[in-house]
């Protein structure tokens, strides 16, 4: 008996309009006979024309039978090109029924194990939605042998939109945990932050308070560790608006430090947040971001660097000029270290600065473009003339009133 309701590829739930089971019962044996006689293409074309009718009528059971029959005939004929082509064709057909595709893919899974030729097997795997799980295995192997470049190449073959489908949460978590390992090696903190954010937004994580808290803590720490740019700044402010940060107040306060236009002292930050970030507390376990390992120590040093860079940006905002000694004093660094950080920010175009090393003075004021200067002068002149005109008008008005009296 055909099922009444099914789901199309665009997410619509549809009801069966016509039952084609009797037609399929008659057509399948005929097409199977044609395929065995070497007329595979004719048999497939006959089934595809019927498939269009069953799909349009939302007859899921009949459509499933046709899809499975097509791949079976290709497999039995050992026509691997036809098998791959028809898998792609049938999965991409307009308003295809999801359950029918699922049954066809399940049938194809059997062929992966049965095929002995490695080249054919890899082509079949690449064609099937099984590619995601297989991609995970490839990524794990590449990470194990520290081949991170190949891992990134493989990761790009996996379309992350696939993880929006129902029942893909486990695969999604596996994928993003593998990507975190890759970007840990690359030192790409902003990418790691995005991966943890994807994990945090997963329904099964949000259902468990301990899991989402750990994920959100990692999101906060890695966005802070990311070098400042427009994307990082935008992400910081978006994360700051998450109401769940109220439940991890220390991390919320730390994030606020980096959005407040005030100088931070590294010693005070360590005193206020050091233990919480590195060791945790009974109610708030620490992440492994700042663990006492080689990688954890490196990230701790990078956090100090982000504090210094934040302070230099604040100085550039409020000062037009400052001496090197005064800046070094505010940063709790030597003059040489301060100059190194300043140079790095200037090279990255995060701030504008020019250093007079002989005088020991830093100038944060950006020289104006001649056109801007001219426009500014013109605007001020117009304002002045308007003011003079208004004043003249008021004086004339007062004189007229005085003469009338």
UniProtKB/TrEMBL annotation:
| Listed GO CC annotations | cytoplasm; proteasome regulatory particle, lid subcomplex
Q: How does it assemble?
A: Component of the 19S proteasome regulatory particle complex. The 26S proteasome consists of a 20S core particle (CP) and two 19S regulatory subunits (RP). The regulatory particle is made of a lid composed of 9 subunits including PSMD12, a base containing 6 ATPases and few additional components. Interacts with ERCC6.
Say which domain of life the source belongs to.
Eukaryota
Does this UniProt record's set of keywords contain Cytoplasm?
Answer: no
Annotated PCI domain ranges read 191-369
> What is the protein name stated in its UniProt record?
26S proteasome non-ATPase regulatory subunit 12
Gene3D superfamilies attached here? Winged helix-like DNA-binding domain superfamily/Winged helix DNA-binding domain
- SUPFAM superfamilies according to UniProt: Winged helix' DNA-binding domain
Functional summary from the UniProt entry: Component of the 26S proteasome, a multiprotein complex involved in the ATP-dependent degradation of ubiquitinated proteins. This complex plays a key role in the maintenance of protein homeostasis by removing misfolded or damaged proteins, which could impair cellular functions, and by removing proteins whose functions are no longer required. Therefore, the proteasome participates in numerous cellular processes, including cell cycle progression, apoptosis, or DNA damage repair.
List keywords of the entry alphabetically: Acetylation, Isopeptide bond, Proteasome, Ubl conjugation
Quick check: keyword Acetylation in the entry? yes
Q: Which family does it belong to?
A: Belongs to the proteasome subunit p55 family.
């Amino acid at each position: 008996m055909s099922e009444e309701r099914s789901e199309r590829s665009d997410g619509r739930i549809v009801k069966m309009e016509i039952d084609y089971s009797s037609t399929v019962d008659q057509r399948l044996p005929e097409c199977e006979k044609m395929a065995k006689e070497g007329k595979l293409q004719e048999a497939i074309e006959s089934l595809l024309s019927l498939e269009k009718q069953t799909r349009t009528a939302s007859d899921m059971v009949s459509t499933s039978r046709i899809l499975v029959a097509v791949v079976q005939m290709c497999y039995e004929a050992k026509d691997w090109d036809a098998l791959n082509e028809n898998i792609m064709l049938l999965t991409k057909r307009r308003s295809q029924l999801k359950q029918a595709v699922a049954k066809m893919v399940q049938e194809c899974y059997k062929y992966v194990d049965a095929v002995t030729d490695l080249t054919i097997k890899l082509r079949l795997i690449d064609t099937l939605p099984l590619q995601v799980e297989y991609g995970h295995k490839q990524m794990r192997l590449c990470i194990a042998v520290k081949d991170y470049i190949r891992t990134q190449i493989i990761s790009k073959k996996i379309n992350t939109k696939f993880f929006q489908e129902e029942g893909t949460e486990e695969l999604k978590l596996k994928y993003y945990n593998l990507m975190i390992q890759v970007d840990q090696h690359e030192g790409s903190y902003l990418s790691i932050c995005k991966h943890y954010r994807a994990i945090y937004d997963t329904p099964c994580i949000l259902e468990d308070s301990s899991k989402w808290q750990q994920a959100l803590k990692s999101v906060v720490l890695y966005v802070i560790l990311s070098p400042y740019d427009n994307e990082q700044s935008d992400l910081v402010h978006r994360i700051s608006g998450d109401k769940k940060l109220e439940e991890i107040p220390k991390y919320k306060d730390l994030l606020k430090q980096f959005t407040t236009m005030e100088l931070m002292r590294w010693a005070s930050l360590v005193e206020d947040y050091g233990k919480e970030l590195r060791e945790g507390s009974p109610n708030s376990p620490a992440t492994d971001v700042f663990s006492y390992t080689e990688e954890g120590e490196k990230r701790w040093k990078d956090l100090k660097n982000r504090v210094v860079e934040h302070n230099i940006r604040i100085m550039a905002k409020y000062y037009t000029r400052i001496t090197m000694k005064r800046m070094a004093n505010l940063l709790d660094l030597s003059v040489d270290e301060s100059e190194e950080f300043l140079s790095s920010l200037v090279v990255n175009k995060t701030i504008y600065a020019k250093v007079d090393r002989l005088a020991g003075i830093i100038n944060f004021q950006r020289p104006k473009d001649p056109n801007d200067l001219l426009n500014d002068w013109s605007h001020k002149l117009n304002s002045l003339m308007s003011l003079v005109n208004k004043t003249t008008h008021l004086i004339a008005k007062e004189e007229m009133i005085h003469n009338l009296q």
